[in-house]
Amino acid sequence: MNLQTLVTQLVSGMVTSIEIFLLTLLFSLPLGLLIAFVRMSKNGFLQFAAKVYISVMRGTPLMLQLMVVYFAPYYVFGLKITPAYRFVAVIIGFALNYAAYFAEIYRAGIESIALGQWEAARLLGYSRVATFFRIIFPQVVKRILPPVTNEVITLVKDTSLAFVIAVSEMFTQAKAIAAAQANIMPFVAAGIFYYVFNVLVAFVMGRIEKRLSYFN
After folding, report:
1. Which of 99, 101, 103 is nearest to 36 (CA)?
2. CB 169 within 8 A of CB 139
């Protein structure tokens, strides 16, 4: 089997992997910011709840979390699980997991900004929301880009975990083809895909960091 044929057969898995990647970022990045705000809340109960959430999500395997999200509707609520729910469960599981990591990254970035900037903005008449999004957040984004880039690169590789609830992403397709053909080439092709995808992600994140380099 030549490389061209392998690539053709792996296209559907590649598309699924990219969908998981993009949708996870779409939901986990804003959710992570929201959780970071709750984590820094002055309300003791909300702060404790956010800490527990982050601890559980970071302290248990993503594979286990995907299984819980997928099977919980049936075992907890007695709802029927449809095949279409598999992909939805993957996105929910990935988004909830990565939001916890992004929340801690956001929190560290926000807390690294000097309190004097908040006070100066208040004296200039800025509201707390305007201060955050116009003054604080651009600086936070610059500071958190390196750790966010690391998480995004990890996400590319983690998309292969979708196989645990039978979502046919790139790795699952490669494994099926390799088993059917008794050939290692599908794994090589999948490895090339993950590597190239990560190189592109690192390049894009590097360009973004360079564009924001005017913040010191």
Report:
1. 103
2. no
Each residue of 93-134: pLDDT tens digit? Answer: 999 999 999 999 999 998 888 878 878 878 877 788 888 888
For residue 128, tell me if it sits in a domain.
yes
Chain centroid to CA 65: 14
From residue 18, how far is each of 5, 119, 135, 205 by CA, in Å?
A: 20, 43, 33, 17
13 contacts: CB under 8 Å, gap ≥ 6:
168, 169, 170, 171, 172, 173, 174, 190
Tokens standing for residue 191 = 């490895």
Angle between helix 137-158 and 3-39 (nearest 10): 140
The CATH number linked to 157 is 1.10.3720.10
Which residue segment(s) compose the domain that 50 sits in? 3-211
Quick: pLDDT tens for 163-179. 777 676 767 777 777 77
Q: How many domains does the chain have?
A: 1
